[in-house]
């Protein structure tokens, strides 16, 4: 008998293939027939989609930057869905990203937000109506409050599996015809997809789970690192992590992980990395799985953009991942625009804010890689302060190609991208510039 998961995988693959055919048809149109946002990535010349291995980039390794499929391929499929992950693999993302949450009964699942209202049909499910509530929790940047929502942490996996994913309605250009098809996945199902894609599609796809709000998911658990250890043990089972410092295995005896599909001879899994905005969690992961690089996500920590701040991060982080405007407008301007306060005396003692033009090189000096986020589909606004405020100094990109080339020249090592097709084309175009001086 064919299993339900096999049927879902087949359906997802068919839908992804249909979507890719549609996308291919779009790219075969003459440039003048394309929607205006996509015209920015059209060019004449070599368009192989493959960067030459001999090209020297400004990255820490000298190799081309790695493209991380942000929540899979959300430009075409509902984010974090089975189809989104498969499409990211078919479009040859270097890494495929999941965001981790945890249910009331301890199952790790993938969803961007801690709540479900913005990207699922949860509001239409009568049996879950009573679970709508308000919640406040502590995050790395302070207190977070969200009202009138359905929270993953309050649901069992059985309840969550009733929910279906849909595109965020704010982005009308994203295809809506896949809404309501795909269920919320477990972390294990995500790892199975990437492992299967490695075998069936070919290519060593990287996994890069982000642990969201660990303090929220550790509340009421038997110890304060329950969420982190559960993720570590799951990654270990699937071959992407080796435990280098003891974790509390006895607290996870209920973790019932599935047998592994055997890798064919000569097939290797792709790389792995952890990421978190919670730097305590990031440091814990670095200590307990030392072979897995840790990404320090940065948004609202002024000290982290100083010389001594980078020194501190380098003690545990292998990759630094700030919001991309820190490389354009600079730390002081970004913090002012977002109402983030800082102690000027403390910042001065830590060496002062590093200028946006020097940020990549200063991170590289400490042997850390750089991974800005997020580079959107060209239909979407790039979201730089300079676009709406002419008083913001520094460089301001004119379009997506201009944006990507700026960061390629800076030497970033990873990029969180949406619309992997566009990102791959732009990376190839820049490789041609490096090789042929175009």
TrEMBL record:
What does the record list as GO biological process? glycerol metabolic process; lipid metabolic process
UniProt keywords, alphabetically? Glycerol metabolism, Hydrolase, Signal
Give the molecular function GO annotations.
glycerophosphodiester phosphodiesterase activity
Q: Read off the InterPro entries from this record.
A: GP_PDE_dom, PLC-like_Pdiesterase_TIM-brl
Q: What is its EC number?
A: 3.1.4.46
Which superkingdom heads the taxonomic lineage of this protein's source? Eukaryota
Q: Where is the signal peptide?
A: 1-28
The answer, when asked if Signal is one of the entry's keywords, is yes
Residue ranges crossing the lipid bilayer per the database entry? none
Keyword Ubl conjugation applies: no
Q: GP-PDE domain: from which residue to which, for each copy? A: 65-412
Per UniProt, the enzyme's principal EC class comes to hydrolase
Record's catalysed reaction(s): a sn-glycero-3-phosphodiester + H2O = an alcohol + sn-glycerol 3-phosphate + H(+)
The family annotation for this protein states:
Belongs to the glycerophosphoryl diester phosphodiesterase family.
Q: What is this protein called?
A: glycerophosphodiester phosphodiesterase
Annotated organism of origin: Coemansia brasiliensis
Starting at the broadest rank, the lineage of the source organism is:
Eukaryota, Fungi, Fungi incertae sedis, Zoopagomycota, Kickxellomycotina
